[in-house]
């Protein structure tokens, strides 16, 4: 955890509940003050094929959405910047709309087999595909992928490696096959999760 994560997340209300239920406030974290992605975070992000994205509406309601793609579709551009291609979905545009009024977001990335979870807090910017720079498009677009509509850029504010206590292990077909687990024939699905 960067110290900045606690500065953002541990609001007065949170600290009051820490005192009430834990008998004390959570101590200051000894981690770095700045949120800079190191090799551990970069490798973890590059291996993920999905994440959960939370935004907040203009009326204050949270919205959580799942985003998925091939491993590494969420690209680390530098120590504090990430990006991903945004594709057409249910045509509701809730996350994109929420980000217009409130550009802050939270992401949760999970490695289910290893029971590891990384939380990211970021300022997000939405670029229509034609408005994104060539370098940005080249960084996130993959040959053979469906046509993207937008590029989403995240400027990292803070991150935290979260407790693994209640992560239920889940395995993809590829992970089970690598372990030598025989699999019945299932209909083909993107990601092949069981």
Tags for this entry?
Pyridox_Oxase_N; Pnp Oxidase, Chain A; Pyridoxamine 5'-phosphate oxidase; alpha+beta; 7 strands; Split_barrel_FMN-bd; 2 domains
Word description of this protein:
The protein is of the alpha+beta class. It has two domains: 1-31, no CATH class; 35-178, Electron Transport, Fmn-binding Protein, Chain A (Pnp Oxidase, Chain A, Roll). 25% of the residues lie in helices and 31% in strands. It has helices at 3-9, 12-22, 39-47, 94-101, 134-140, 173-178, and strands at 50-56, 62-68, 75-78, 81-87, 104-111, 116-128, 148-162. The chain has a seven-stranded antiparallel beta sheet with strand order 2-1-5-6-7-4-3. Strand 3 and strand 4 (81-87) form a beta hairpin. It is globular. The mean pLDDT is 89. This is Pyridoxamine 5'-phosphate oxidase. Residues 42-127 form the Pyridoxamine 5'-phosphate oxidase N-terminal domain. InterPro entries: Pyridox_Oxase_N, Split_barrel_FMN-bd. It holds the Pfam family PNPOx_N.
Could you name the ranges where pLDDT drops below 50 across 5 or more consecutive residues?
none
SSE string = HHHEEEEHEEHEH
> How confident overall, as mean pLDDT?
89
Rg on CA atoms, Å: 18 Å
General form:
globular
Protein name: Pyridoxamine 5'-phosphate oxidase
InterPro entries: Pyridox_Oxase_N (IPR011576), Split_barrel_FMN-bd (IPR012349)
Domain Pyridoxamine 5'-phosphate oxidase N-terminal: 42-127
